[in-house]
Specification:
Length: 260
């Protein structure tokens, strides 16, 4: 059985809002810990059209310090970008030490939309698996933590969300003819996704699939996985107060500071 077909779509627990809040605060603590450690994080969010990628990213970043992360929405390459190596437009957004970058779609478009829609030749997208694996291993070797999420929804749920977007005036901007072009190619996309998962699920950058028919469940599951990946091996002990700074503060403030 394929990985997509075997994926469950559980509903969110009743206390999902409280759990989500706990995860968001945990992410903020991890952001500070990564800053202290100089540890960069790269989060790639993939999924079907209308799978909830934007909503998940919105919840993921809700409590983060905006100075230390970047959300990069990926669209079709420009004419100038097409003249470069295909990965170059992603490299320029890689995070500095201690920062995070979140890609809303990513270099996996090479083996998904560019493959299915014929925007890349079979030779080009066929080479991309090796190029992606090499890139992710290289980045991981420098200490970068790579998190890869794929949000999966059924055809029925996608159709329901398409209709909701078209019937809700302030959501209509999200829809265009390309969404229906992609919908007609679902079988081809499923095959491309399965091959992507098989060939790029590597130890330093594993894929995590999320059954996303329930948006609330997908957000909890997605944030939980991001937290688990980012905190692995990270020193989460609170920083100690520098003795010289303590002495200065106590002298200037005329107090005795508690804690260490």
């Amino acid at each position: 059985m394929s990985r997509l077909a075997a994926l469950a779509h559980p509903k969110a627990p009743e206390d999902h809002e409280a759990r989500l809040r706990t995860l968001q605060l945990r992410l903020y603590a991890l952001q500070i810990a990564c800053r202290r450690a100089g540890r960069p994080g790269l989060i790639l969010v993939e999924g079907w059209d209308a799978a909830g990628k934007g909503g998940l990213i919105k919840r993921l970043t809700a409590e983060l310090d905006p100075r230390f992360f970047e959300v990069v929405p990926i669209a079709a390459p420009s004419a100038d970008e097409k003249a470069e190596h295909w990965l170059q437009r992603f490299w320029r957004w890689l995070p500095a030490r201690g920062d995070w970058t979140i890609f809303d779609r990513s270099w996996y478009g090479r083996v998904l939309v560019e493959r299915v829609e014929g925007f890349a030749s079979p030779d080009a997208w066929g080479r991309a698996y090796d190029e992606i694996r090499a890139t992710e291993r290289m980045l991981a070797a420098t200490g970068m933590v790579i998190v890869k999420l794929f949000l999966h929804i059924s055809q029925e749920e996608q159709d329901r969300r398409f209709r909701d977007r078209l019937e809700t005036p302030w959501k209509r901007w999200k829809m265009g003819p390309e969404d229906f072009r992609n919908r007609r190619q679902r079988v081809a996309y499923e095959a491309a996704i399965e091959e992507m998962l098989e060939r790029t699920d590597i130890a330093v950058a594993p894929w995590h699939l999320v059954g996303a028919n329930s948006k609330a469940h997908a957000r909890l599951a997605g944030l939980s996985h991001v937290v688990g990946r980012l905190e692995a091996g990270l020193d989460l002990a609170p920083p100690r107060l520098d003795p010289a700074l303590r002495a200065l503060a106590e002298r200037e403030l005329g107090v005795t500071l508690a804690g260490t």
